[in-house]
Design goal:
Length: 233
C-alpha cells in the first residue's frame, strides 16, 4: 500500500509530495537511512502556484551557432564559455569579455567580424626609470611601472583608463607626459566603460543592502545569473 504524505516546505507557494511504502517501519526521512526491505522513497517536487497553474522555469539555451542574438543577449555567459564558442567557430578568442561578445553577436548576425589586433610585444621596460624615459611600443602596465608612478603621483595611484590608453598608444612620449595625463584625468570626467557584470552587481547589491556579507552577495548572484535578463526585470 502506498501512503501519500504532503509536506509544506519553507516556500508557501509550493508543495513537496512524498510517496512512502507503508512497509518501511523506520523513519524514511532520516538522513542516511537505508530501508531494510528495499522499499523506495520517491520524492516528487512539483512547482505549483497557489492558484493551480504550473510555473515553468525558462531554461538557458545552449551556446551554439543556432542561437539568436536576442537569446544570446538575454543570458549571462562566462568568459570561458565565450572562448570555447569562438574557438569552435574559428572566431578570434583573444581580448576581454566585451570584445568576445561583440564578435559573437556580429557572427550570429552574419556580419563581418570587427578587426582583432593582437597587442604588439615591445622591449622590456628598463629597470631604471626617470621622468625623461621614453615610452616604447608594447609596454604593459605592470607593477614596476606602477611603483614608478606611485613615487611621482602619490600612493593612491592606480592605472585608470586614461593612463592605460596613454601607455598603450603614446609610444615616443616621455613618462613625465604620462604623469601629466594622469593628473589631468583626476579632474576630468572619464568615459563610461563596459563593466564586469559581477563587479557591478556586487556594488549595487552592497549599496542596497548595507552590512551584507560577501557570502550573502555571492548566493544572491548565483540565483540571479541563473535567470534570463528579461526574467530579472
Amino acid at each position: 500500500m502506498i501512503l501519500p504524505v504532503q509536506i509544506q516546505p519553507a516556500g508557501p507557494r509550493h508543495l513537496t509530495q512524498y510517496h512512502v511504502c507503508s512497509s518501511v517501519t523506520k523513519n524514511p526521512f532520516r538522513k542516511n537511512h537505508a530501508p531494510h526491505n528495499a522499499a523506495v522513497l520517491v520524492h516528487t517536487l512539483r512547482s505549483c502556484p497557489v492558484h493551480g497553474e504550473r510555473q515553468q522555469k525558462i531554461m538557458r539555451p545552449s551556446l551554439t551557432r543556432m542561437i539568436s542574438v536576442e537569446e544570446f543577449e538575454d543570458w549571462y555567459w562566462k568568459k570561458e564559455e565565450l572562448v570555447v564558442f569562438c574557438k569552435h567557430q574559428s572566431i578570434p578568442s583573444g581580448g576581454s569579455k566585451p570584445d568576445l561578445e561583440i564578435r559573437i553577436k556580429a557572427y550570429l548576425r552574419g556580419e563581418t567580424l570587427p578587426k582583432h589586433e593582437k597587442q604588439k610585444t615591445g622591449k622590456k621596460i628598463p629597470d631604471h626609470l626617470t621622468l625623461d624615459t621614453l615610452i616604447e611600443e608594447g609596454w604593459s602596465c605592470n607593477p614596476k611601472l606602477g611603483r614608478f608612478f606611485k613615487d611621482h603621483c602619490g600612493k593612491s595611484f592606480r592605472f585608470n583608463h586614461a593612463m592605460r590608453q596613454f601607455i598603450h598608444t603614446q609610444a615616443g612620449k616621455r613618462l613625465r607626459d604620462a604623469v601629466v595625463c594622469y593628473k589631468d584625468s583626476l579632474t576630468t570626467r572619464q568615459p563610461s566603460l563596459p563593466q564586469n557584470e559581477l563587479a557591478a552587481f556586487m556594488r549595487n547589491y552592497s549599496q542596497a543592502n548595507p552590512g551584507c556579507s560577501r557570502k550573502e552577495i555571492m548566493l544572491e548572484w548565483e540565483r540571479v545569473k541563473s535567470k534570463s535578463r528579461s526574467e530579472r526585470r
